[in-house]
Every structure is written in structure tokens, then in C-alpha cells.
Amino acid sequence: MASNELDSHTPVTPVIPVFHGAGHLLRLIADLVRRPRRRECPEPVRHRGVAQGREGLPVVCLVGGDDHAQLAKGISHFLGHADPRRVPHVLHDLQGGAQPADPESVDAVRRTLERLAQGFARSVNGSDGRVRFRRFGLVNWLAQVGADSGRSHPGDVEGNDLTLLQGLREREFRRRRVFGLLRDPETELAVDGKVPWWVWLFAVHVLPLAWFRIRRGLGRDYRWLLNQPYLAPRDPGTFTGFAERLTAPHNEVEDPEQLRKLMVNAFLEDLRSAFRRRIWRPGTARRTAYCVALLDGLGPDNCGYTLLRTIIDVRNETGAFDPLLVVACGAEPPAEGTGVRADWGRSELWRLSDRLYGGWRDTFLHQGRARNRAPWYLPVSVPRLMPPTEEAYELTRRLEVAQDARLRIPEPPLWARRVVSVVAACSAALALLGAGALVLGTESGYRQAHCGLDRFDDDADTLLTAETGECIGVARHGFTFHSPDPSLDRTLQTIYAQNTRAEEAHKAAPERPFVTLVHLSALLSVSGKSSGQLAYGREALQGAASAQSRQLRSTGATEPILRIFPANAGSGMRFGTRVVDILEQLKEQDPSLVGVTGLDQSREATNRTIRRLTAVGLPMVATTLSADTLVRQSPMYFQVSPQNSREAEVAAAYLAHLVGPGTDKPVRQVRIIASADPSDTYSRTLSDDVAKRFRARGFQVEKTVFAPPPPPGAEPSSDAPGPGTVGQRSCSYRGVVFYAGRSEDFEALLGGINESCNSDPPTLIGGDDVARLAADAERREHYPGIPYDFLDFTLGSAHCDGTSELYAEMGRLFPDECAKVPNSSLDGHAALGFDAVKLYVNAVKQLREEAAQMPLTPPAVWHAISGVHGDAALDGESGIISFGGDVDRQVPLDKLLSVQRIDGVGRPTQAGFCGRVGGKRQSAWCPPLEPEQGR
């Protein structure tokens, strides 16, 4: 077996041998290996349009002298390096291993066929699908097993057929993993007592036995064995009786030639089945190269000639084509006077030339139906192989081998290619699944795809279950997005109740304008669990609900009646564009839909959402977004918060006011810490703006990035250190550390500083996103020993004491939230959510007052929002909102920004504020205010 390709691991790769006429031999093998697209080899002769001649592959016999082994390996190399894929072939050494006493014995032929079957069934030969030798495997197993191999009990008179059937049954069970698993003792222990006894009895005994009986009666390999032509299979009339005849020692009395033919026919029938073209089996059309059996060491002292003779006899007797090209290599031709030598014909015809294939083809097409072996043989006399040291070696290699060294086999037809098959299979599977779903009912799948809602639920059509398990879409009729946060549930239910009141008010007073806004945000985390980091989503909704409540209590003819539809775009706004697709359909169905508020986190997903909203034609008023690039995404985009550029300018002015001479003041240096996440537009633009503004004020600037923790199942966005490590490395920094990232990562940064320099932390200031941490009293108190400043979109803490429109309304709607307002108001989300809705309300009122007959369309509302400035400016809860009279301006002019300081576990204290606030002057260190146009 050392020379057999099945288990050879020769370190030197064989190459194609060089000899005179090598090109002719390679072309001959190539012509025989390539499978025609229609019919089989050889191509038939056509007479008056009718194909004549039979199909078949020759038995190529190479006479190579002492170089036959090298020749066989070279041909194997030639076939193994075909383009675009390997030709399935097996190299078997007929002289390898222990030789039987009788080279023509049935067992010798069986062993050779067994090795060939093992080789063709290997994955290396299965690029177009492995060949399953079911029929030969059954015959081979029967030939090796003894019918009476089991121990007989004294007095047993029932015969040995039960033992044989038991062995067959065990063989089938081993081939089917599910039965092997059911009968495994470990499985029995695992399910002991967990399933009813009758279920276990049925699964382990009844079902396998019933399956085996059906398989024995209807299985293709069993039925084939009883219908093949050799050994009279109908004697004695049952499968068990015939199978027993094939077992030892009963097979010793059978005709050896018939036994050999049965084995060869089973082997060839398995190959025929694998290659048989059927329209429903596109894999067979992908087999564009025949299987090749390379038999090395052909000679009278082994079973080679017997095997070749048996293959030809089976072909003649069955008349069936088989896709096996046999290439036998031997040192010498058959001896003179033998039948094989007579079948080979005259030795003058063996000479290697380019007409060998054509000559054999003509002979075979005319004489192939004759019941003799001669037309099947194609003997070839191979010249002496040239060693590389020979002078003419290189020239002969170039002339004879180089041009034909690469075997090119045909590509399968387009319809049969694997991609097309996969697409077709997927389409068929989907069709079957669809049909099955119709039969069994599609309700379960519909519920899974629509957030657990059935098709009769009013919200089902506008809600979807995303790949992450989050529920995204627009909720119009009371759906709470499976929120585990009771406060968020109450907020959403309050909005839905107010929507019902709004519809009733519209019916009672149809002359009043009736508009609908969609509050689009990230309501839930990826895991669907409540998180303090996402409480701002609830607060922004509470601010919007408060503005809606005020409108419901208003009675003026121009006061709009307002509905608010909560919408969830998933964590990080990653599914925002899909939600906008839903909004596009709603816009066509509901003309009262005029705009969108909310929008969370300045990320690339948010940019895509803004562009998609623009394509749909809906104006937007963002609540807390601040990245500079957002306004470039759409002219229909507005925001009520300041931009990062203004935030950076205020931070630079504040720190320029702080630094100076003295041992307790930081030096005029700043280290900017930003996220390495490329999709985080907020962090990137804020860090760039801060660097620019600080350099303008004479600071030395350096940048450091950190890699935020990736979402579950995702890869890290960078190989940068984590925020905790960056915090530890900032302990010795003598300048100012400016944090331009997200609040959740700011906690990790504080953790790193707390571990390394709690007693002497660096001077630290954070961007507006840090306000989310400061607004959560429990999270804020984790690191009481580390003071820091942060930028805020409000003046500071507020109270439900009636002095503010927003918080007085929240005290009525959400009395349980009032205790949290002194902290939760710090991040300004409720105030900004309130002001965003008020901006729409004022725009609608202005349209009704100035052009009462104008339809309230999204473009009209967008135009009215752009005119908010001067005397028409909105004096909101988060400061004065004025777009300065510039038609291209989309960000409020000199919007309020305060600096809050946290020192200890108490509430933050204001260190100053910049911007327009009614009745108040900004801090002296602030940048000067910009004048409005026309003033």
C-alpha cells in the first residue's frame, strides 16, 4: 500500500515524465477524460442525422518497461493538477501489499475494487460531489461477513438468516447517525425518566426495526441486488436467501467468474448512478470529467488482467455505459499466445502517435457492439523515459510536454453550476417552506417577524423584529417595544392616551390644525434590558409628551392638535433607514404626518437616516445631536442643540480662563481623548473641533484614542487601548484632559483614573455626552474622589415647582418623575425634546395665521421652521432658539451651553454659561455673541 495514492505521503511531488511522444499521450488521456456536454464518450458518428455507434471508454494499457511506476505517478500528477479542478482518479499499485496465492481469485479482485472505491469516495475527489458506493458496499460487506460468524447455541435449529439480518440491521444503523445516537447507552442515561416509557420503546426499538424493514424492501441498493443479472438472484426467491449465498463460506461454491462480475457490476453501477444525467440532479451535469482508475504494475502475477477482462465482460453483457476510464501501466505486454495478447492486436498499432484516439474511436464505433473484448483495449507502447541529465531532456520537455502539461476540463453548463443550483435549491426550499407555512399556519412566523404581534394587531404592520432581536418601527396604537423599564412603559402609555384624546379633539374641532410628529430614537439597548445609559430616551419622550399635553389643553383656533408616534431605530440608530421606509408608507396613508423629532447619537447610521428622511420629504428637528457634519446631510435637517464647533469654542474659552501661573492650575496643554470607532461621528468631529479651537488659543494639543467595547458578537473597532487604560495613562498629565467620547466609556475612563491616581487626578473636562452620566445620581456617585467639569445644554438642575412650562407639565403627567428631575434635568434631554416639539407647533401656528388656506404639508412646515428668528424666535426651556434670519442656517444662533462642575457626590454646580438666555447675561469669559441678520 505504500505506493497507493490512498495513503501515500511522498514528500517529492511527482512530475510529468518526459519522453518522445509524451504530448500525444497527454492529449490522448485528455480527450478520453473530458466528458461531452451531451451523450457520452466517444462522440458518435452521424449518418443522415442519426447518431450511430455505442458509448464507452477504452481500457488503456501502457507498456512502459521498468519506468511504469514513474509513468503512472506522472499521469496521476497530470490529472491532479487539472484546471479548474482535479480529475477524480485513484492510483493503485497492483503489486503492493500481500499478494494472494491465486492472482485471479475473487478476493484479489474484491480488494482492488475496495481500494478504488475508497479512493473515489474521498473528499479530494469530491469537488463535484462524492461517489457513494452503496451497491458495491453492500456486496463487499456480504462477501466478507460469515453468515454463521455468530456463536450458535446448542439445539438452535432456526438457521443463520437471523444472524445475517441482525448484522445487516446493525450495519444500517451505524450508517445512520440518528439511530446510533438513539441506541447509545449515554443517550439512554440522559433521557432516563424524562420521557414516557412508550416513547423510548418506540424510538429505540419499533422505529428502527420498521425503518430497516422498509429499507430492505424499498432501498435502491437492495432492490438492485435482486434485479442484477449475475448469480441468478431470484434463487431462492428472497433477499435474505440470495444475500446468504454471497457470504462465506457459501460463496465458495458459487461460480468465481459470476462473483467477480457481480462485484464489478456493483462498482460500475454506483459510478453510473453518480454520473447519470437527470434534470432534477444538476450535480451530475457538473461532473465534466470521468473517473480514472490508474492501475500500476499490471502483469500476469496479479489480478490486473483478470480485473480488466471482467470490466469489459460486464460492459458487453449489460450494454450500459460506465464513466470509468481504466489506465493500466505495466512493464511488459501480455505473453504471446494468451487471449489478452490476441485482444490487443498487432504490436505495430501500439506505437504512440496523435492518431491513437481516432483509430480506437473508429474501431469501437463500428465493432463495439460485437460481444468480444478486442474493441475495448487501447494498448500503447511508451518510449523510454528520459532522465533530466540527458542532453535532449529540456528540448523534449518543451516540445512534447510543456504545451499539454495543463489539462483543461470543461466548465459545467450555466444552469448546473453550483451557484445556480444553490439559488435554485434555496428558491425551492423557500417555496416549500412557504407552502408548508400556509398548511401549518403562518402566524408563528408573522409574530416573530413583527415583535410578537399577530396580524390583526393595529401596530403589527409598522413594527419589525431586527436581526439583533430589537423591536424597531413605529408604534401608533399602544405598543411599548417590550420595554422592561416601567417608567418608559408609563411614558409611552401616556403618549398613546394623549393620541386618543387628540383624535377625539380633532373630531370635535375639525377647524383646528391636526398634525402628527414621529419621535425617532433608540429606545432600547441591544439586549432589551433597562439601562441608565439610555434613560435619556425616556426623558426626551417625556419632554415631547409634555409639549403635546399643553397643546391638548389649548383651545385657540390656530393652536394645532398634536399626535406623537414613538419610533425605535434600534441601538445606535443602526436600523434608522428601515424605520424611514415604514414612515414613507405612513406618509402616503396619513397626510397629517409633517415631521420627525428625536434622532440619537451622531453616528454614521444617523447620517444615513437623515439622508433617507430627506428623500422621503420629511423635515427633522433633532434634540441632542451636535456633530458638525449633520447639517451637511440635508437642508431639511434642523437641531435645537448647539454644534460641536460651538461646544469646542466654549470649552476653549473656559479653559483659557482657568489656566495660568500657579502651582494649582494646569499648564497650557490639552490632551484630547476620543473614540477610535470610525462610525462615531460625534466623537470624531468634537475632537477635531476642540483641537482647532484650543490651538487658536495657544494650547499645545495632543490626541489619544481608545477602543470602546464592541457590541455582543462584534469585533473591536480598533487595536487601541481601552478607556480604562487611557485613564490610567492620563494620571501624570500636567495639562487639561478633554474627553470627547460617550458617557458609558467615560465611566471606564474614571475607573482607570480612580485605580491609579485617585488622590491626585488630572484636570478633566468632558463633552456634552458626559451630562448623561451626571444626570444619573447613582452612576455619578461611583467615583466621588475625582472632580471633573462637563459641558451641558441647560443652565443646570430644575424642579417641578411650576416656574417652568416643561416641568410644571411633567409634574402633572409624571408625578413620580419629579423626584428625579433635579438630577435628570442636567442632561437637558427633556428640555430639548420639549423645545423640538414646540418648534413644530410654532411653525404650524405661524402658517395658519399667515396663510390659513395653505395645506399643512411637510415642505410648508419645513419652510416655516427656517423662519424662526428675531421676534419669532422661540424662548424655549433649553434657551433661545433662533436661526438668525439666515435661510441656510440649520443650527440655533449662540445656543445655550453651560459648564457644570462635579466635586464630590453632590449635585453639579454651574461654573458659568454662554449663549442666549432670556433675561440673563453670559459669563465674561464666553465668546462674543453673533449678531442676527437685520439687527
**Helical amount:** 40-55%
Spatial order of the strands in the main sheet? 8-9-11-10-12-13-14
Hey, roughly how much beta strand do the residues contain? 5-15%
Number of helices: 32
Shape: elongated
End-to-end Cα distance, whole Å, is: 99 Å
In this structure, how is the largest beta sheet organized? 7 strands, mixed
Radius of gyration: 42 Å
Task: Tell me the structural class.
Answer: alpha/beta
Number of strands: 23
What is the residue-mean pLDDT, rounded to a whole number? Answer: 83
TL;DR?
With 935 residues, this protein is of the alpha/beta class. It has 32 helices and 23 strands.
Please describe what this structure looks like.
By secondary structure, this protein is of the alpha/beta class. The protein has 32 helices and 23 strands. A seven-stranded mixed sheet has the order 8-9-11-10-12-13-14, with helices on both faces. β17 (736-740), α26 and β18 form a beta-alpha-beta unit. α3 packs parallel to α11 (256-275), α4 runs antiparallel to α11 (256-275) and α20 (535-553) packs across α29. It is elongated. Mean pLDDT is 83; it is low at 1-14, 147-159 and 525-530.
SSE diagram, text form:
Layout: H1 22-33, E1 45-47, E2 50-52, E3 59-63, H2 68-80, E4 89-93, H3 106-120, H4 134-144, H5 161-175, H6 177-182, H7 185-191, H8 197-218, H9 220-227, H10 239-246, H11 256-275, H12 282-285, E5 291-298, H13 304-318, E6 324-330, H14 339-344, H15 356-367, E7 377-381, H16 393-401, H17 418-440, H18 443-449, E8 463-465, E9 471-474, H19 486-508, E10 514-521, H20 535-553, E11 561-568, H21 576-589, E12 593-598, H22 604-616, E13 620-622, E14 637-639, H23 644-658, E15 669-675, H24 681-696, E16 700-706, H25 723-729, E17 736-740, H26 743-757, E18 763-766, H27 771-774, H28 777-780, E19 788-792, H29 805-813, H30 821-824, H31 829-850, H32 858-866, E20 874-876, E21 879-881, E22 897-902, E23 909-914
Parallel strand pairs: 3-6, 3-7, 4-5, 5-6, 10-11, 10-12, 12-13, 13-14, 15-16, 15-17, 17-18, 18-19
Antiparallel strand pairs: 1-2, 8-9, 9-11, 19-22, 20-21, 22-23
Helix pairs in contact: 3-11, 4-9, 4-11, 11-13, 19-20, 20-29, 20-31, 21-22, 23-24, 25-26, 31-32
